[in-house]
């Protein structure tokens, strides 16, 4: 069977890209990354792609008169590589409505919060300021509104009393590295249907547990002593 051709848009380190590269390298995985596009030169994400033998392209946004022209160049690059599905992985540009509609239901993003809470930037600061006990990440289908769209996978982490932005970011990033591959697997296996504002997951398969990531499963976290428990 033909593998789903995925294009990944990046701007930086690319640790999420790396998890997708590793996933696609598993035998018989039904998707392959055919192109990585960065709006910034010399970023680690490009190096990761090159190391994996994946074609890369730098399309610097500064070289274009406006967002539409930049998005058209990205669109052309993706189409030239026969890309069928787009993953945003730390891509720091907001895509135009035109682009998002051209690729309707065929773009996913990972956002470092439990949407719809804490959209935009500085999500870990927002979570600390709000005093939430749980935080995490969301993989969602991209819509023209920022950090909006049907949710595919969320992973939850606890917010611990001594957390600062950095420690929370590190914990969330670890969760991202589990959530994004789970989401791409669901997509590649054709198990996602978009139904209005919701993404429905075909649960005839046993992997629905992948959608439910309980932070207290982490053996490294001290559990409170609950009377009556085992
Ligand atoms: C991640 O925190 C992701 O949620 C956000 O940008 C960051 C990218 O990290 N969209 P990396 O480049 O994948 O390491």
Task: Considering the chains and any ligands shown, give keywords for the structure.
about 25% strand; two-stranded antiparallel ribbon; binds 5-O-phosphono-beta-D-ribofuranosylamine; globular; about 230 residues; Rossmann fold; 8-stranded mixed beta sheet; 10 strands; alpha/beta
Describe this structure in a few short sentences.
The protein is 30% helix and 23% strand. The chain is built from six helices and ten strands; from the N terminus they run E-H-E-H-E-H-E-H-E-H-E-E-H-E-E-E.
CATH class identity of the largest domain: Alpha Beta
Helix content: 25-40%
What compounds sit in this structure? 5-O-phosphono-beta-D-ribofuranosylamine
Q: Give the radius of gyration.
A: 18 Å
Kindly describe this structure.
The chain is of the alpha/beta class and 230 residues long. It has helices at 15-24, 44-51, 67-80, 97-102, 123-130, 165-188; strands at 4-10, 31-38, 56-58, 85-88, 107-111, 134-141, 151-158, 192-195, 198-201, 212-213. It folds into 2 domains: 1-103, Formyl transferase, N-terminal domain (Rossmann fold); 111-217, Formyl transferase, N-terminal domain (Rossmann fold), CATH 3.40.50. The protein has an 8-stranded mixed beta sheet, with helices on both faces. A two-stranded antiparallel ribbon has the order 8-9. α1 (15-24) packs parallel to α6. The mean pLDDT is 92. The chain binds 5-O-phosphono-beta-D-ribofuranosylamine. Residues 12-17, 89-90, 110-112, 137, 173, 176 line the site of 5-O-phosphono-beta-D-ribofuranosylamine.
